[in-house]
Specification:
Shape of chain A: globular
Structural class of chain A: mainly alpha
Distance between the termini of chain A: 25 Å
Strand content of chain A: 5-15%
CATH class of chain A: Mainly Alpha
Oligomer: homodimer
Order of helices and strands of chain A: HHEHHEEHH
CATH architecture of chain A: Orthogonal Bundle
Chain lengths: ~170, ~170
DNA sequence: TATTGTTATACTCTATAACTATA
DNA sequence: TATAGTTATAGAGTATAACAATA
């Protein structure tokens, strides 16, 4: 079924393992902080943050799904939770009646503001503490092309987003 | 509760976002490959790989839990699944009757071998493709100290592993 | 016919607490 | 008393498929 690369070289293996471990630990810490300070899951935080970044505080469901890598139903579920908490509001889009526009409420903005400092604190203290400013730059410089590459690379067995749902 | 860093500088922010996105996409791709080629979750793969790395093909439950960051019950659950599939075997440890030693079976080793090439292929093609060898070295060099720092930093509100369960 | 989003449903995973047994 | 592990249980999250409505 395969006869190509039997292994990664030691340097690659180290980088790969470190990457997995670092993000795993970081994620864990961040999730805990978000849960404690705002009763938010990481996904919910990402959705709020994304809306907060938007000039209008709004996004269509589809646009949100694109960013947070999700099945449509999963997004509906999460946005439903956020709406139930009064953090966002859903309304039919003006231009396209099929679409739904999600908008951050004042409460949502407040929660975001309440949660952000602690979030930053965790990321700073855990991820950036052992790195100099130049090293952070170097890290960013290395990750950017990888990100671009991944974005451009469709998940091999992707049955296409056009045919099926959205996952 | 906090009055310090209100924000990360742009460079840090970029590095942080890229890190999250890159590992999220990588994880997604890897999980899909593992599911398709061996019907394994990522956690299960990690457990098998960890056992495969051991000279004896064995580990105590506790040692496994330490690496894969888990609650004890979660580990019991996953190892239970693997045992049900005949990929590992559990037996009381010889030296400490309280401990359980988990050992990779031949079937487990075979599955690991069957799944690994595709795994390596995904990681190579997605994570390492856009990086030169030197860049991979640089990446590894940046992540290593971060990993060490995180390992040494107890999760702030960690009620200690001694008092409670293990999470 | 294609796209947007929701619903129903089933399943996987994870965590907490209570419990057993050995050190 | 502390440690190793299991069990019961409950809850969060995710994905699939069927569905409704608009373009």
């Amino acid at each position: 079924m395969s006869d190509a690369p039997p292994s990664l070289d030691p340097v690659q293996l180290g980088a790969y393992f470190d990457l997995i471990e670092v993000t795993s630990l970081l994620r864990h810490a961040v999730e805990q902080q978000l849960r404690e300070s705002g009763d938010l899951s990481y996904v919910q935080f990402q959705l709020l943050a994304r809306l907060g970044d938007s000039p209008t505080g709004s996004h269509r469901m589809t646009d949100l799904a694109d960013g947070v890598v999700y099945s449509r139903s999963g997004l509906t579920y999460q946005v439903g939770l956020l709406e139930k908490e009064g953090l966002v509001v859903r309304a039919p889009s003006p231009d396209d009646e099929r679409s739904v526009t999600v908008t951050l409420t004042d409460a949502g903005r407040e929660l975001l503001a309440k949660v952000l400092p602690g979030h930053v604190e965790v990321v700073s203290g855990l991820l950036f503490a052992p790195l100099s400013h130049d090293e952070v730059s170097a890290l960013a410089g290395l990750l950017a092309p990888v990100r671009e590459h991944m974005r451009a690379t469709p998940p091999r067995s992707a049955a296409s987003r056009r045919r099926k749902g959205g996952a």
